[in-house]
Amino acid sequence: MQNTDIPPVYDSSKQVSPALDELREIFNYRNLVIQMVRRDIVTRYKRSFLGIAWTMLNPLGTSIILVLVFSNVFGVSTPGYPIYILSGFIAWNFFSQTTNASMVNLIWGGDLLRRIYIPRTIFAVSSVGTGLVNLALALIPLLGIVIVSRIPITPALLFLPIPIICLALFSLGVGLFLSSLAIYFTDVAEMYQIVLMAWFYMSPIIYTDELLPEQLLNLIKIINPMYHLINLFRTPILQGQIPEFSEILISGGWALVSILIGWVVFTRRADEISYRV
Amino acid sequence: MVDSNSNKNLMIDNLEVIRLEDVGVRYRVPSERITHFKEYAIRWMQRRIRQRDFWALKEISFSIKQGETFGLIGPNGAGKSTTLKLIARVFRPTTGRVVVRGVVAPLLEFGAGFHPELTGSENIYLNGAVMGFTRREMESKFKRIVDFAELGDFIDVPVRTYSSGMQARLGFAVATDIEADILIIDEVLSVGDEGFRRKSFERLEGYRRKGVTTVLVSHSMDTIKEMCDRAVWLDHGQIKMIGESDQVVNAYLDGQ
Asked: What residues of B are in contact with residue A273 (Cβ under 8 Å)?
């Protein structure tokens, strides 16, 4: 920054659009995003015995328990059920962790926002960055189980970045929207936990479509974007196929709607953040 | 440091690095503090949400020239910190205009930007990034920062094990080593032992000679007189007096 001969000029009267300005600023501060992701990863594992292995073991452990419960107690015997659960769980974890972290990091990072200018979306953006690193790590045991279960590894796996990008944009939008509420009310984070619980059971993570009455399934398809996003992530792994084009469009559409609303709502409120958090 | 080419589309004088034009800052706070959504929903249904406006600054206009050391004085709640935050871009003015040319380095309150679990050196890179610097830019400053902070081998140990003095030294070393054009100092020079304080003052003097602009808030009138060329006296968000620091400080002390 200081290497350029032209010093940066800040003129408060030259704000064109908060949403576009923020986009430019977050790009200028991409180095801080990287440092914050690094910090999240390093501090999370620094003092733990198994270190980074927890990211892989955690969804794996939960999935094993769920598989045991559902195949033995409820008698679910769909082929590839362990992978069905684990892949759904990984996608869901990404969403719930990043949206929560966006809120929490903004509230805790408020200290910094009161002292120095940094782009306000940086907490949500770096939360998604950290989530992506964890997601990539969680894919390793998932692929291990795919191989053990003799489900063929196909080139369709190369499609995975698309559902991951959709998930990331969707989560970023939701995280920003929640953050703009959390600035005003301290109980938003707690209420969100209840919403998440309901949302979890409304999403096809532990159950398959066939277990639902048709009317309920159709309702879920309409009102729950996570239904589509989770399946978009799961299809290439479980079926070895690229999802149908219509499914890609629906997921992409939800991701765009979410990021647009979240970004605009948050950046409109952004100037108030430094004295509210 | 100030490039004349970049000046074409700017209506400000070449030497002016900070300019406030008729600036006002309004905080909009609910008349009763509602922190829970549940409460808000109930009040909203009862139509009992009232906002109270509070102007922290009103009709503030002044400019600071390159290389100046500029002081802000006044009683608590006068708007000194709000003014600093406008310059540091933490707040945006509600009315009027703020123009700042150059990299601004606010002296963080000591330890504010540090993460306790990270080591000193990891924190240096994190803090550099907070101020907008790349890893490579920070690498060239790294050794100087460590030397100035006198941390030695402690640089590779988590910051939570540092004494407050060590944290203070690291904070000052990082904030003042970034070759900023404008330095913002809010009552932080009172920390640290005498030796480190003298060293800090010397470093600030050195910056002044290099043409760095400094904006300083202090309750110590001696510090203002000693370090500042000019000063502004703020009271209830408005300018009471602006001028040579000696005169402003004397008027302020007389007026008390």
From this structure: none
